[in-house]
Amino acid sequence: xxxxxxxxxxxxxxxxxxxxxxxxxxxxxxxxxxxxxxxxxxxxxxxxxxxxxxxxxxxxxxxxxxxxxxxxxxxxxxxxxxxxxxxxxxxxxxxxxxxxxxxxxxxxxxxxxxxxxxxxxxxxxxxxxxxxxxxxxxxxxxxxxxxxxxxxxxxxxxxxxxxxxxxxxxxxxxxxxxxxxxxxxxxxxx
Length: 190
What we know:
alpha+beta; 8-stranded antiparallel β-sheet; 2 helices
């Protein structure tokens, strides 16, 4: 999904050589005083066309996602994400001078179906398990912020993303983990 959003940004701010853009891709002038709103508006308009032209994006298939903090490690594999076709671009902040971009999205409902492994503690209770999972986020606000640099390959400009940060918060989240194991006082079990 993020690669599709980045593609929209590149097209929206006019980093193109002589290629003709599809009708759904409306570039914004780098000098437009309302560049951020132009990129947000035209990016939103292009999402259905980008998704329709890339069947692998709906549903989105991801190889792996890892999450860890001081008490818990979760690894998701073979992920299928549903609901991304309903993404709303709430804000785009393009700082072309500093080569920095912030994108704020809202997605009403995203469901992840995946294989999982987890290890750690929840509320001081040791947990360890693996199996299938269904994770659903409702009312999600997602923020992607990154720096980039332009690299030239064979006469074409490409955006190389560096220093990326991703945050999200949801109104509700539902988790179902099959074959989970929770035992008080033990951390080594099957």
